[in-house]
Specification:
The chain has eleven helices and twelve strands. By secondary structure, the protein is α+β, with helices and mostly antiparallel strands. The protein is elongated. About 20% of the residues are buried.
Length: about 325
């Protein structure tokens, strides 16, 4: 749905930019395939008015002109829609270069590289190397989840989505209806923040736990998007990053390196086991379950009970 609309907007923009005289609604409808497929005049008129408003919101200057016969036409003059010369200093160019390199493992890599080429064509000096100032840096944001791209587009277009989500303590995934707000990478994992319609509350979802396809839904968001979406802070609190308590666990000597990085103390027990003290906050039980038989919770008792309950739920299938 998003691709079809983007193609329709692009075709309308090209028609309006390419004409030397104003084009009427009838001429535009005959020129654009998506408009020809509109079921009725009312359907076409609604679609055209929405598309025209969307293009104007994107910055395209569209003029409305009435001829001697009283017929209304539309055009977008090139001189009114020409960008000013682009000037970037070395630091700004380097920042753009780093941003492009970040996405080399994602499907956005081609778009990022193409953007730099367009900046060159628009006047970026040849002696400015977007990569040179930070050539030793090789930033990467790994994107392996199939859900990333449809969710990124849904966040951008403010479109509700539906997907199947498997919680850490559940054997089978459950369906979620979500208004997606923002995506963020934290400690090597991608997370989505949004409004869970079924639960009537803000939720954060780990993309690696989304199963199957992300499906778009029609309609608008029912809840305003916050000015600041604190994905990282929410996930950190669930992982115990802001905890004011501690937990003691046993951990196999050759396992659980993320847990070791969080530990405030580590003591060798022998026989291939260590004892760790780690911050304890909401959601730590779900994280510990992911390490399976390599972790044994010693205390507090409530954390041990929560982990056992999650393991039993998974074992029951």
């Amino acid at each position: 749905m998003a691709i079809a609309k983007a193609e329709r907007l692009m075709n309308l923009a090209l028609c309006l930019l390419g004409t030397r005289r104003p084009l009427s609604k009838r001429e535009l409808r005959e020129s654009i395939e998506a408009y020809l497929e509109a079921g009725s005049d009312d359907s076409f008129n609604r679609m055209f008015e929405r598309d025209k408003d969307d293009l104007r919101e994107l910055g395209l200057v569209i003029e409305t002109v009435e001829n001697l016969d009283g017929e209304v036409g539309y055009l977008a003059r090139r001189d009114s829609n020409r960008l000013p010369p682009i000037t970037l200093d070395a630091e700004e160019a380097a920042a753009l270069g780093l941003a492009a390199k970040v996405w080399q493992q994602a499907r956005l890599a081609g778009a990022a590289s193409g953007a730099l080429q367009k900046l060159r064509a628009a006047g970026l000096p040849e002696d400015v190397d977007p990569y040179g100032a930070h050539g030793a840096l090789e930033p990467r944001i790994p994107v392996h989840e199939a859900a990333f791209e449809p969710l990124m587009l849904a966040c951008r277009d403010r479109r509700p989505v539906v997907f199947d989500y498997r919680k850490a303590n559940a054997a089978q995934p459950g369906q979620r209806h979500v208004e997606p707000w923002a995506l963020e990478c934290w400690r090597g994992h991608w997370y989505l923040a949004g409004w869970d319609r079924d639960r009537g509350a803000e939720r954060v979802f780990r993309l690696s736990r989304i199963t199957g396809k992300v499906r778009s839904r029609s309609g608008r968001f029912t809840v305003p998007v916050p000015d600041v979406v604190t994905v990282r802070e929410t996930v950190a609190s669930w992982a115990g990053e802001t905890a004011d308590r501690s937990a003691r666990i046993r951990l196999r000597s050759d396992a659980g390196y993320p847990l070791r990085a969080k530990a405030t103390s580590v003591r060798e027990l022998g026989d291939g086991w260590d004892e760790l003290e780690i911050p304890y906050g909401h959601g730590l039980d779900a994280w510990l379950v992911e390490f399976g038989p390599d972790v044994v919770v010693l205390e507090p008792a409530e954390l041990r009970a929560d982990v056992m309950d999650r393991l039993r739920a998974v074992a029951k299938g």
